[in-house]
Sequence to fold (168 residues):
Amino acid sequence: MSEEITNRVSNSKLINFNLEDYYPEGERAFIDISQYLDQGIVLREKEFRQALKEENWEIYRDKFVAIDCSTDAIVPTWAFMLTVAHLHGLVKKAILGDLETLEKILFLDALSNIDLSKYKGKPVIVNGCGNKPVPDSAYLELTQVLKPVVKSLMFGEACSTVPIYKRK
Fold:
């Protein structure tokens, strides 16, 4: 007597949410303002403007770009503004910060555009493993976005979840 095996997970009303589906595809690049500092300390406006004019900005075309200074030098705000002015119209997005900050911002942007209607009143599992670099901050943001609309929120895989929230 063999009973037919049924896949209860695939037959359930659970909705899997994979943050990797929201991973913004494209190359990432970092522009380090420290390369323009005089003696590694001071940013001189005239020299900086000239260096930016001579830069090959095409190498950043269609990339996501983080702009920051990797040293402890105090860089005036206008330097970042001037740099991004050269990138405008070439890049997918430019931010002030390091590459980690760039990833956080890209996911915040992606998650702000989610259609929440398909998750309303449903049990949702947020997948935890994957092949793309999803920052932890994306999971926190997703929790804040989904909690007001879902019936329940879990983390992991259907066979082994960690409950995060359940509507009372």
Observations:
- Residues 52 and 83 are 7 Å apart (CA to CA).
- Helices lie at 8-11, 45-54, 77-87, 99-111, 136-146.
